[in-house]
Amino acid sequence: MEQEAHQGSNGSAACLKVEGLGKHFGGLVAVNNVDLVVENGERRGIIGPNGAGKTTFFNMIAGELDPTHGKVHLYGEDITRLPTHQRTHLGMARTFQITNLFPNLSVLDNVLLAAQALEKSKFSMLRTIKSHRHIYQKAEEMMGKLNLWDMKNLIVKDLSHGYQRQIEIALALVENPKVLLLDEPTAGLSPAESAEVVSLLKELDAEMTMLIIEHDMDVAFELVDKLMVMHEGEVIADGPKEEVRANQTVQEIYLGHD
Amino acid sequence: MTDNGPMLKVDDIHTYYGDSYVLQGLSLEIAEGQVMAVLGRNGMGKTTLIRSIIGFTKPRTGKISFDGADITALQPHEIVSLGVALVPQGRRIFPSLTVMENLLLGEKEGAAGSGEEPWDTDRVLTLFPRLKERLRNMGNQLSGGEQQMLAFARSLMTNPKMLLLDEPTEGLAPLLVRAMGETLSKLKESRLAILLVEQNMKFALAACDYVHVLNRGRVVHSSTPDELAANEEIKSRFLGV
Amino acid sequence: MTFWLTQIFNGISYGAIVFLLAMGLSLIFGVMKVINVTHGTYFLVGAYFGLTTLKQTGNFFLAILIGGIAIAIMGIVIERVFLRRLQGNDLGQVLITMGFVLVLQDAILVIWGPDPVSMDAPKFLASTGRIGGFSFPMYRLFLIVFAAVTAVALWFFESRTKVGSSVRAAVDDVEMAGGMGVNVPVVFSLVFGLGSFLAGMSGVLAAPWLGIQAGLDFEILPFAFVAIIVGGMGSLKGAVVASLLVGIIDNLGKTFFPEFAYFTLFLPMAVILAIRPSGLFGRAM
Amino acid sequence: MIRKRIVFLVVPLAFTLAALLAAGPALAAKGPIKIGLLTSKKGVLAKHGSDQMNALKVFREKFGDKVAGRDVKFFIEDNESKVALAVTRVRKMLTRDKVHIAMGGLFGSTGYAIAPLADRYKTPILIWSCPDDISKRKRKKYAITYFSCSQPMHAFAHWVRTAMPNIKKVITIGPDYAFGYESTGGFQQVFEDMGGKVIQKMYMPINTVDYGPYIGKLRKDADALFLTLAAAQGLRLPKQLKEAGLANKYVILGNGTNTDEFVIDAQGDEVLGWISALIYSADIQTKDNQDFVKAFVKHAKKDPGYYAEGYYGGLRLIYKAIEVVNGNVEDKDKFFAALKNLKVAKGMPAGPRASDGHGTFKMNVYVRMVMKDETGKKRNKVLAVIPNVSQFWNYKPDEFMKKPPYSRDYPPCKNCAK
Amino acid sequence: MRGELLATRGRVIAIAAVLVFASVSPLFVDEFSVLVLNQCLIWGVLALSLDLMLGYTGMASLGHAAYFGTGAYATAIMSATYGASFGEAFLVALIAAAVVTAICALVALRASDVYFLMITFALAMLIWGLAYRWDSMTGGENGIAGIDRPLIMEDTITYYYFTLVVAAGVFLFFSVLVHSCFGKTMVGIRESESRMRALGYNVWLHKFIIYMISGIFSGLAGFLWVYYNSYVAPTDVELVTSFNALLMVSLGGPGTLAGPLLGSTIFVILDNSVNMFTERSLTVVGCIYIVVVLFAPEGIMGFIKQLRTKVGETDNG
Q1: pLDDT (tens digit, 9 = 90+) per residue, B98-117?
Q2: pLDDT tens for each residue of B194-220
Q3: Are A23 and A68 spatial neighbours (Cβ–Cβ below 8 Å)?
Q4: Looking at residue D4, what is its pLDDT?
Q5: Shortest Cα distance from B112 to chain A (angstroms)?
Q6: What's E72-129 look like in SS3?
Q7: Cα nearest neighbour of E22 on chain D
Q8: Whether B141 and A26 lie within 8 Å, measured CB to CB
């Protein structure tokens, strides 16, 4: 019912549709029967306390985990059992909550690896990435945009956490994804750095659909239109952000004040 | 001994996790019977603090002493035997042990002199009656809430002088969170020192006597819970609420 | 019928030796994640220790005990001094255990010389038993019983004692076991000592049957490896079932397809690996 | 910076080069006569190797390091019981040490692996293991064998048919490589030509640990087992036969390696009564042998076996050949011709040798039975001596060589199917 | 930029120096030294192939003797049993190595870490079992003898130069490979598999390809070895061969191309000379294993790198 209403209101097809998704680990129900519809160009947040099942849910959408039950559709195509790397080819990209880069490579090599991920040339055994002009330019452009170009030759593990978080996003963006999944993009950042990331994300192409897990309410409110609140593996609220904020249960269990 | 100094003293520790520099000169003290909350957003070093105290991740420099003894370089089991108990994040129940075995694993005589009745299976099961029905189940057959109770219960079985709680309310239903708060206040009466690391600010502030806020591996704010509750700036800057 | 009985009995008795060896390997792998290539050489050195004891005292059962204890001590020293610093470095651990294989093989040459030697079982075990038309060596029956008793004892130790549950806890989550007050370094030494003990003991037990001879270590080690790979590393049940399978398959394979004698043994292993990489009873990785 | 880099590379490289050169030969025009000896000091054949090394000691004690007026230098290489390594080691003797002759090889297969090196480096090799075909169909210009694996077995089969006519049906068991095939094949050939029947043939890997499966398959209607055991098989199989209660069920015949002196002390009483044949026994009652045994016991504290005598005897042949050419071993063709046409009547513990002109020697074959002497020590008592045995037995060499070489499948087991 | 150029120039000079040394030295040393150098090259090819997996991609294989052995046996069987020519044997050896590697990779790639070690180990035992027992094909314990090189390569020095050209070719190809697009993905997989997947790489496929390359080139080393030794036996396929290959890589320095070559050179020279000085060669090699693991986990190249950074630091300061 609600899904139809969503589709009707914009006339656009759902970009991401999740039906009855669930994941059990032994006796533990991490995610239970979650439905979610994200429309094209929509920015949707998922919030909830630690252990609510957000990351498990997220990983099932990204393909890192196989759901116990339920389905995931991307642009109408069933991707429930599709391996992660193939989802990327459908236009999906993600970031990690715990920074997940190539620590012993330079910043440039990190971004280049991302930039060639969807190119056939990644199998080329005789030519360097740098000799593929368009890949190099793609990386250069993205790094320029994020002010990372100056540090292109630095080794990632030597950089500060703040820069690493930015590279984390750069790797996801360099392939121009249609759907961007962000797992706590500002985790561990100072307010100033956090604000930078927020403004960076806000400036992104408005057509890009985003699904954001956030812990930081301010970040979530600034970035998204709609919020889904998870708790103990279930959805306890889903709707426009103001509505969710006002929700009594949400107040009670998540925001931590009455 | 304990009367003169703090139960736990963390003095300017610097801890690295792999290549990343997590705790950057952190200091704090907890007295006997005190419930100390440590708040902070993800990635600020809360769990690393717990890991440093219990001996999982040793600080590169700095000193941690417990009950008058320097524990900085001790093995985890030695630290536990001095009277520190851990309720870890994610519960970390042993899946191939039954509930009963999980409990008995850490069973240990308590430190004498507290005057308190020592913790044994009967007493912890009175505190968490739900575990009673599941004693023969394997650790991985429990629900999330039950696992959390078990994690709590087994840590008490070591009859500790101090509890390290790493997000004990993670993933618990409101009813259970409330029960957890009650349990904490009961434990506090028995003069147990408690270090509580939390994301759930409401729960933490209600349970603690004193609160530290962590940011990037350092304590950036210390006050009573009421003061912090009133300090909107600190809350929004460092806790994101 | 007698033919089949004999073949299966032989298979089981060989499985008994393989079990004793494999169980130690499996324990060590389960708790420490060390692929202990030295294990076969422990078996051989244990046999030599047993031999020396038997020569000195004439007591076969004391020889079994001393063979086991000597190797247990050796294993504990190697674990404490070398393997412990390499925790988490899988490859380093494997390579260093290979280094010890070579050093120990050389030590055998120096200490006991290159002579192949044999060891006599006590008289009462050296006879041939007979049930109807089916005759069998008593010593093999003794091995089967011995292995069965050991399996039960290990099971009891693992599932019914406090130390046993500490070991299982360490298999599940070493760090958290330490966080519960389990003395992990001691558990490691204990497990390595127990595993080595089993290896040394099985060497002595096998000696009256297989003889003692340079090269025996690498003749028997593959069987133990197949057993723990098939059974699942760290699993007692797996080691029992797989050792019996290995013994019986090896026997029937050699009987019916002598040219593919090893293939009949290794192929089922490869198939099981392909379907269940963690073995029949191993925990999923 | 670059200079430093070069230093880093050049230094180790220079060291390598220096090491290679330093160890290289500083060849004088006519130094000592160099004899290369291959043995096994490690692995499953380590014991055989130690017997060989003791025999070398006895030999040097007796004949010294001087022959035909020239000094002799020995180069010993250890192939660690690995055939593939034997190739590398022999190659080293021939190229680095530039030995004038090499001797050695345990395992029949080693002989086949190293024989081609003789021709390649035009250096005589006395192949000490007994690869049949090197003196038959796969002859080399510069390789000669000490004897041929099937040679004693031909004679033995003849003896068995003559002396023990009741033994008609035999099961053969042997290790699954050249030595096993040739020993078994030689026995079967003559045994069946003389009306006996081989009713079951089994080959098993040398590293077989449990013989249960093979023992379980033994046919009950045989009169005797013919065993060929190598390395540790001699320890395990007798025990396991006894365990299975079969030790007394069959007459046990076999190759002399089964109860060779290298292993006989370690074997139990289950081998008592075993009858075997080989080119040697410590029990040979000649003066030459008694002297040899005495000298050997002094070094080894045990009796010599065929591994010991063979090494000693082989060295004796080499010295003889050197004497024939008056120490002029540099003329390899002449030297090898001398070796190939050698006749030695005296001083050989195992009796006289005479070249058969086909690349190996004629010699005595001893039929032995394991018995205890008055001190309770097990010995290979000589039951019979078959003198001057040729590798072709009494077949015609040309016809013999038209047949396929002994192998896993030859001679075929005509009487095996039930 | 300058530093990079300098480094490249240094590398080129170093490679040239080694090449010159390798091509000139045989003219000045005795035949045995040429044989030893030849061994260094052949084991070097094996070590390089293994390093592609171990050092660059982070996949530690405990069973490379299997692919080496497949190449070796295929060559021997073709040459000795079927009388195939050098070229035919070459083709069949590589195809056989590829097929066996593909099958093993399909099984082994289902596991990772220590389980991967275990499975590659088990698969190598299977191949050894075949070599040891499949008598009618492999000659079992006898091995296969009498593999003759073509007449033009009969000579030790000629074959050495042939091996040198092949090894140099392999080195050249590998150095292009590790710097290529695909080479970067290898390092990416070593650094973070999950990130590679999230970026859209079919990590399994990449690992499979790397495994294949590594296996085929190991087979090539086996091919070279058989024509070198004219003989193949089950001991060439046994566990110790796999371990020695790992030791060579670890000794020289995993994740570098010079390392495996250096490691194999040192190992081969030691292996051929240690028993000239002592009877206790087993202990010596055993101690090398232990010392490398404990004190030189990054191998000699890692040590040199450290030293260089130190020298560089004192230079600047």
Answers
A1: 999 999 998 877 654 455 67
A2: 999 987 788 888 889 999 998 888 898
A3: yes
A4: 52
A5: 37
A6: HHHHHHHHHHCCCCHHHHHHHHHHHHHHHHHHHHHHHCCCCHHHHHHHHHHHHHHHHH
A7: D13
A8: yes
E235 touches chain C (CB under 8 A): no
Residue of chain E with shortest Cα separation from D94:
E32
CA–CA dist C35, C18 (Å, integer) = 17
CATH number of the domain that residue E308 is part of: 1.10.3470
Nearest CB among C118, C139, C213 relative to D243 is that of C139
Q: Does residue B186 register a pLDDT over 90?
A: no
Classify residue E39 as exposed, middle or buried by CB count within 10 Å of its CB (0-12, 13-18, 19+): buried
CA-CA distance, E203 to E185, in Å (whole number)? 9
Domain ranges in chain A are 14-91+179-189+206-258, 97-176
Q: What is the residue-averaged pLDDT of chain A?
A: 83
Q: Is C138 exposed, middle or buried (0-12, 13-18, 19+ CB in 10 A)?
A: middle
The complex's ipTM works out to: 0.87
User: Residue B235: how many CA atoms within 13 Å on its side-chain side?
Assistant: 17
Unique residue bearing structure tokens 């991490």: A30
Nearest CB among D50, D208, D268 relative to C114 is that of: D50
D115: nearest Cα among D99, D100, D131: D131
Does residue E11 belong to the interface with chain C, where contact is any CB pair within 8 Å? no
pLDDT (average), residues B59-78: 92
Tens digits of residue pLDDT in E103-120: 999 999 988 888 898 889
Q: What are phi and psi of D43, to 5 degrees?
A: 80, -165
**D-chain residue closest to E259, CA distance:** D9
List the 62-121 stretch of C: residues with Cβ below 8 A of E. Answer: 82, 85-86, 89-96, 98-103, 105-107, 109-110
Question: Which residues does chain C have within 8 Å of residue E293's beta carbon, measured at their own beta carbons?
Answer: 86, 89, 92-93, 95-96, 99
Cβ count near D7 (within 10 Å): 10
Please state the domain count of chain E. 1
Q: How far apart, in Å, are the Cα atoms of B212 and each of B25, B28, B47, B86?
A: 14, 8, 14, 19
A52 → chain B, closest CA residue: B171
- Report DSSP state, residue C282: S
Q: What is the pLDDT of residues B128-181, one digit of tens each?
A: 888 888 888 888 788 777 888 899 899 999 889 999 999 888 767 677 788 888
Q: What is the pLDDT of residue B91?
A: 83
Indicate which of D209, D218, D407, D413 best probes the interface with C, i.e. most C CBs within 10 Å of its own CB.
D209
Please, are residues D93 and D75 in contact by the beta-carbon 8 Å criterion? yes
For residue range D113-124, list pLDDT tens digits in order. 999 999 989 999
Provide the chain E residues 73-132 that lie in CB contact (below 8 A) with chain C.
106-107, 110-115, 117-119, 121-123, 125-126, 128-130, 132
CB contact under 8 A, E201 and A117: yes
Collapsed DSSP state (helix, strand, coil) of residue B19: coil
Distances B221 to A189, B31, B62, C95, C182 between C-alpha atoms, Å: 17, 18, 20, 50, 36
Residue D162's φ and ψ, nearest 5 degrees, are -80, -45
Say whether the peptide bond before residue E260 is cis (omega within 30 degrees of 0): no
Strands E144-145 and D353-355: unpaired
Chain B residues with CB inside 8 Å of C180's CB?
80, 86, 105-106, 154-155, 158
Q: Taking 90 as the threshold, does the pLDDT of residue C119 lie above it?
A: no
Query: Residue A235 above 70 pLDDT?
Result: yes
The boundaries of the domain holding residue E208 are 2-316
D69: left (phi over 0), alpha (psi -120 to 50) or beta: left
Domain A14-91+179-189+206-258 classification at class level: alpha beta
Q: Which residues of E touch A121 (CB under 8 A)?
A: 181
Arithmetic mean of pLDDT over chain B: 85
CB contact (8 A) between residue E143 and residue D206: no
